[in-house]
Write a structure and sequence with these properties.
The chain is of the alpha+beta class. The protein folds into two domains: 148 residues, OB fold (Dihydrolipoamide Acetyltransferase, E2P) (Beta Barrel), CATH 2.40.50.100; 57 residues, Orthogonal Bundle (Helix Hairpins). Helix content is 25%, strand content 43%. The protein is built from three helices and eleven strands. The longest helix has 26 residues. It is elongated, with a radius of gyration of 26 Å. It starts with 9 loop residues before the first strand and ends with a strand.
Length: 218
């Protein structure tokens, strides 16, 4: 099963619209690092990932760099905290050690981020597709996967000036019920739907997305 997200807002009568029920957010997750893809979890395609590793990028060197950076950081931190209270050390010496300690801290943070960025994980996201395979080499910015937040649903409609006026106080009915609430709306007409105002609604996640919903504004 794949979710189609082509937006088709249809205006019939004043205050009445039709549009697709979409996942709340769509994501394209890209790589932050360079390296060889060593693993992809293809079984998660069309599934909801529950804090699982989806893609693994080679981290052998990164693990060594991380351990070295952490060790250096711990040593420099402990040494700085030791000498900063000593009256036998000058302010210049203490300042130099502080700079060395802070530089080591930055190196540690970068090494930690690099290591963590090699394990692509997702939690409570629907995985639509994995865009790389084992053996592929990726660079920063390479798209890795497409995913959706399906914890909530969203409907986007483009309404008339009459319907946008005082919309916060109007009743919004979706498929005859009130499961959807106003999320946000624009006070400026849309650049494509030039005579209409964009309105977004959010509500409970359905069993299946991409169904056409009838929206009434009263």
């Amino acid at each position: 099963m794949r979710y189609l997200l082509f937006l088709i807002p249809i205006f019939l009568y004043s205050g009445e619209y039709f549009a697709k029920v979409e996942p709340f957010m769509k994501y394209t997750i890209s790589s932050k690092v360079s390296g060889l893809v060593t693993k992809t979890n293809q079984k998660l395609i069309n599934q909801v990932a529950e804090d699982q590793t989806i893609i693994q990028i080679d981290d052998e060197v990164s693990k060594i760099n991380y351990e070295l950076a952490k060790s250096t950081y711990d040593i420099k931190r402990n040494f700085y905290h030791k000498i900063k209270r000593l009256t036998t050390k000058s302010k210049i010496e203490k300042d130099n050690e502080k700079i060395t300690f802070l530089n080591a801290k930055q190196d540690y943070i970068r090494a930690k981020d690099d290591l963590q960025s090699r394990s692509i994980r997702a939690n409570n996201l629907y995985i639509e597709d994995i865009l790389v395979k084992k053996g592929n080499f990726v660079n920063p910015g390479t798209p890795l996967l497409k995913a959706y937040d399906i914890s909530r649903a969203k409907i986007t409609i483009f309404v008339s000036k009459e319907d946008i006026l005082n919309i916060e106080n109007k009743q919004i009915i979706v498929n005859g019920g009130s499961d959807f609430k106003l999320l946000r709306y624009s006070k400026i007409t849309d650049s494509i739907q030039i005579s209409s105002y964009k309105v977004e609604l959010t509500g409970k996640s359905p069993t299946y997305f991409s169904q056409i919903a009838k929206v009434e504004i009263k």
